[in-house]
Amino acid sequence: MKITIYSTTTCPYCKMAKDYLSSFNFSFEEKLVDQDEAAREEMSSISGGFLGVPFIVIEKDTGEKVQIVGFDKEKIKSTLDIKDLA
What we know:
By secondary structure, this protein is an alpha+beta fold. 36% of the residues lie in helices and 23% in strands.
């Protein structure tokens, strides 16, 4: 499984998403779209022009790709099959 988070250096929701994934020991690649033009273009291409962050792409081992806009905790939980108490 591969998780990519497109974020900016000042986005509080990006930090919450990264902290949430880290709390369950998920590793991810972060791409800072406010500092990296190529990452911004890549995100725009994948998202169909959407530039809001965080934008999370989860590529499952089956090849299925799930795109999550914003810190959508419930969608992250269901996509990654996270069972937490919150």
